[in-house]
Amino acid sequence: MFRRKDRVEIKTDAQILLMRQAGLVVARTLEVLRTAVGPGISTRELDAIAEDSIRSQGAIPSFLGYHGYPASICTSVNDEVVHGIPGDRVLRDGDQVSIDCGAILAGWHGDAAITVPVGEVDQAAGELSRVTQEALWRGLGAARVGGALSDIGRAVENSVRAEAGGAAYGIVEEYVGHGIGTSMHMEPNVPNYDIPGKSLALVAGMALAVEPMVCAGDRTVRTLADDWTVVTVDGRRASHWEHTVALTTAGPWVLTALDGGAERFAAMGVHSPAAGRD
Ligand code: MF3
Ligand code: CO
């Protein structure tokens, strides 16, 4: 949704460095939010913390007012997949909340999402989040100069299937990742599944938001009457993880990860300019 019909925006090295600063605003904000999550906090309180964090770093919350969206983050609890609106809901022990956050700094966007357990979650919820995060990193690791866009979705899909351990997880198809830069949503779409056939060549200077949404059960989703909140039709949980990644000749650089992806990529054997950098 909300796709701009532009060509793919190719950034200079200097522009990627500016995007890194925007990415760090998002990374630090999500870190604060992750720590703040616990039984008894409302999603509206999380939103206030996010807006404070973003503005105190000199940035602007990109979601606020976007197509009329009324908050600075999305908070999607349990069966909510994405675009949950912060409000009166108080998080309870055993819930799981996905928090999606975007910021604009000096005209450049960062966009990332995490799934956070509230207190003690059951093992299935923890496993769903782990599988989704792993799939995200496999997708990020496939964001390589000289590769193709479809490598990313294939890596995400294969990872979900490989990590599922017999579970029949559903990968959401209605919402996809996206190019990002001077706008939040730009060309190209970045699906979380394989698309056979010829695909866009990945070149240095691209920046992409990779964001798998994985359901514990069926992948069918619907939107609530608030016109934003997307939920699973079967009522089972979903997890959402997202990062903004820049494609460089030295490998993928995860702009919204505090360490740029150094640790996860090292464990995966993926070369990244983040290694020894941050
Ligand atoms: N980060 C979301 C997306 O990933 C955008 C949230 S929609 C908004 O692409 F309206 F809340 F901004
Ligand atoms: Co996004």
TrEMBL record:
Keywords: Aminopeptidase, Hydrolase, Metal-binding, Protease. GO terms for biological process: proteolysis. Signal peptide: none annotated. InterPro entries: Creatinase/aminopeptidase-like, Pept_M24, Pept_M24_MAP, Pept_M24A_MAP1. Residues 18-248 form the Peptidase M24 domain. GO terms for molecular function: metal ion binding; metalloaminopeptidase activity. This is Unannotated protein.
